[in-house]
Write a structure and sequence with these properties.
Layout: E1 2-3, E2 6-20, E3 24-26, E4 32-34, E5 45-46, E6 50-64, E7 73-86, E8 92-102
Antiparallel strand pairs: 1-2, 2-6, 3-4, 3-5, 6-7, 7-8
């Protein structure tokens, strides 16, 4: 996108992480604990075994072309979108959008 001599570009990169969490959970104090098969202790929250995390990093760059041939970059910002998805049902359990800063 551009307006006069200002140009904005957006770059996106997607990464996917597969997580096999079978057999792990947290006790009533939030400490990691190994869950046994068929454990139904209400004090322990065992994780669903297979999930994935989709992460998309966005980089927005604003350039002033009137500043060429020197450095035309006026502003840069970085954002991240992360979602946790259960693989067996494709249900999105949570998403977080984070501003990672910029200049």
């Amino acid at each position: 996108m551009n307006k006069g001599s200002l140009v904005k570009t957006i770059e996106a990169q997607k990464m996917v992480y597969l997580c096999d969490l079978d057999g792990f959970g947290r006790d009533e104090n939030g400490q990691p604990i190994k869950c046994e098969n068929n454990q139904h202790d209400t004090q322990i929250a065992c994780f669903d075994p297979e999930k994935k995390v989709d992460e998309v990093i966005f980089v927005e760059t604003w350039k002033n072309l009137n500043n060429l041939p020197s450095d035309p970059i006026v502003k840069t910002s970085f954002e991240s979108l992360r979602c946790v998805v259960k693989l067996d049902t494709a249900v999105v359990e949570s998403c977080i959008f984070t501003n990672l800063g910029g200049s």
